[in-house]
Amino acid sequence: MRIVIAPGGFKESLSAEEVAAAIARGVRRAVPDASITTMPLIDGGEGTARTLAAATGGRLVPHRVTGPTAAPVDAHYAILGGSGPRTAVVEMAAAAGLRLVPRDARDPGRTTTVGVGELIAHALDAGAARILVGCGDSGTSDGGAGALQALGVRLLDASGRELPRGGAALALLDRIDVSGLDSRLARIEMVVACNPFNVLCGPEGVARVYGPQKGATPAQADALDKALCRWACVLERDLGPVGVDLHGAPGTGASGGLGAGLAAIGGRLVPRFEVLLEHLDLDGVLAAADLVVTAEGAIDRQTSRGKIPAEVARRAERHGKPVLLLAGAIGPDARLVYGSGVDAYACILPRPMPMDEALAHGTEILEDGAERALRLVLLGTALTPEAEHRGPVRARTPKGA
Asked: Exposure winner among 22, 198, 354, 367, fewest CB in 10 A?
């Protein structure tokens, strides 16, 4: 059996590489002689810069920046190898990710993307002619305001005072002074890899959809949505035509609205998998599989809206390959993933348990859950009509287990 394991990471728990390795160990327990190919995938969030640097023979560049709560953090970006223009990959999560915001300090109205702008500026200092910004796993909802401030933009209230950092302050925005914007941005290409389902404003806007997981109450999410709508209006007025509707164009809500902010200064919003997977031969690997296993931390209504499992399933379906999705939690509307090409999904938890316990034993839980799921797959295979002609497929216990 040829099995491809193509997961994303489990947010605030395991990297995509760790998830793929744990699933592979669990699969081996059920099918010791399987031919397994692991392909950890990226979506612009944590691990993006490291993965693309490794895939292209590039390198990581460490740089200390202002973190999402204003405390300094040790971040990084990548300089890709290969031919073509000198390309830097700025992973926004490295500077403003949710993991960098302590649980008792999660307030998306106050957190900032200043560090993302500082990474972009450092990449410009390093001679980057093309900057690829990966959006995902953010701990911010400031519309990219902090990033623009770090690049020389001034945000002013009606009295001409500088606004404090954070998305909530954008409700007081009166005008934007771009006279100090880094002039090098006009001479480079900036590509923003984003989830096209994420928009800045409205009922499906980033504040209302993702604000609660970043610590916002419903009232705070509503206020933040109004502030981000004000941000979009003033950006469009003071920066002139930018080629997209900053309120609701696909990708404007990426990473708490970072997509809108970068689009306003010339960034090109691109569906993330179009650019992030161009260095990985995912389609070729899927075409050779008998079974595809993907995974993410939780399945809910957002999974089918541009998440890694949905992209894997979409591509696998083109090759006629069955897809099994493993997850740490099953949320509301999980069944929507069936419409994205997923054939079955399974929760890896053996029993209900507190989140802290699940995170502490994530690797073990994932290995065991993968083994259970594969044994069920083998049982189903043995019961198909074709099995009458080839004999039952049976899981075996590895020696020493």
From this structure: 354
Residues forming beta bridges with residue 191, ordered by sequence position: 132, 268
- Calculate ∠ Cα 159-164-168, nearest 5°: 100
Nearest to 235 by CA among 251, 207, 204, 258: 258
- Sheet with strand 35-38: strands edge to edge: 35-38, 2-5, 291-299, 323-330, 344-347
Identify the DSSP state of 41. -
Instruction: Confirm if 349 and 4 have CB atoms less than 8 A apart.
Output: no
d(CA 152, CA 148): 6
Residue spans of alpha helices (H) in 134-196: 145-150
DSSP at 17: H
Question: The pTM is what?
Answer: 0.85
Answer for the pair 229, 245: CB distance below 8 angstroms, yes or no. Answer: no
- Return the H-helix or E-strand segment holding 260: helix 254-264
Neighbours of 217 (CB within 10 A): 11
Cα–Cα distance for residue pair 119/88, rounded to 1 Å: 10
Using a CB cutoff of 8 Å and minimum separation of 24, what contacts does 123-128 make?
123/61, 123/77, 123/79, 123/88, 123/90, 124/182, 124/184, 124/185, 124/188, 126/61, 126/79, 126/86, 126/88, 127/86, 128/79, 128/86, 128/87, 128/88, 128/188
Q: What is the DSSP letter of 338?
A: G
Euclidean distance between CA atoms 226 and 241, whole angstroms: 22
pLDDT band of 356, cuts 50, 70, 90:
confident
Mapping DSSP to helix (H, G, I), strand (E, B) and coil, where does residue 249 land?
Answer: coil
Four-residue CA torsion sign, 328, 105, 193, 85: negative
Q: What are 15-48's pLDDT values in tens digits?
A: 889 999 999 999 999 999 999 999 999 999 998 9
H-helix or E-strand spanning residue 155 = strand 154-156
Q: What DSSP assignment string belongs to 102-132? A: -GGG--TTT---HHHHHHHHHHHHTT-SEEE
Give the Å distances, CA to CA, from 213 to 149, 207, 251, 333, 334.
Answer: 25, 10, 19, 17, 17
